[in-house]
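Predict the holo structure. Ligand: uridine 5'-triphosphate.
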Amino acid sequence: MKKPLRKAVLPVAGLGTRFLPATKAVAKEMLPVVDKPLIQYAIEEARAAGIEQFCMITGRGKTALVEHFDIAFELEATLRQRNRVEAMEALKGTMVEPGSMVTVRQQVPHGLGHAIWCARAFIGDDPFAILLPDDLVLSDTPCMKQLADAYNETGGNVVAVVEVPREHTNRYGILKTGADDGRLVEVQGLVEKPAPADAPSNLSIIGRYVLMPEVIGHLAKMERGAGNEVQLTDGMAKLIGNQPFHGLRYEGTRFDCGDKVGFLEAQIAFALARPDLAAAVRAFLPKYS
Ligand code: UTP
């Protein structure tokens, strides 16, 4: 019997060095794409997959992320007084069920694997999702919902995967692939940031995962991997052979918003997907090409 997927971990403790100086006092995950911070896209996507409990792995200077999902009493009272219906509506997605969001501190950013290990008490014995808010996916069906559906089919671990140019394998976690039906691919091995010559494929993991709680025991060993960090990929690799492990070629377009060009592209793509903005954006775009 598969346990239902109800929990999500959102690591937001990274330093965001590629976005300095913007990220000196503001968390990278609070940067907006159009008018919504990255963290809110991630929470909304998780909710659309039936997830009810959220754990943000935070660090110093990240309090705005917590504030964002709290009641802004004075602001809401003022908007109500002024009858600003649209503005009040815009705040709705920031409301979470009381008691459904917790935070855990990762005091030192020792890597994504270490960040996930910090959520061990929240995870307990349950399957859990991971969403990296700086990976944004524009799709018809929310990416995490696609993964949750695949988990309900296969059980075990499921990660979202996409083909990347071979010369970019050293930026991502890469799969060694087994049986492949074009949508779901059996994972036989995982390598973090391999050089193109050593990469077992060009299928890369993006920041959406459904994992079994046993990964925590492997992460607890705190073995250092690529970049001398505790890598989630290395912990996941230890699960292979003991539990089902699949990659899902999701439907949609991923934007790496941790990178300047990816972030700028996401602004344009998400604006063009908005009926209230598309025409105006399309009108100015030719000026810059
Ligand atoms: P990145 O590799 O993008 O690192 O982390 P970063 O620090 O956020 O950004 P740069 O490279 O310095 O610009 C991927 C995800 O993992 C989280 C980050 O917050 C981001 O969501 N992370 C990374 C942690 O929570 N803790 C870590 O120790 C490392």
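The domain at 7-274 is CATH 3.90.550.10 (Spore Coat Polysaccharide Biosynthesis Protein SpsA; Chain A). The chain has one domain: 7-274.
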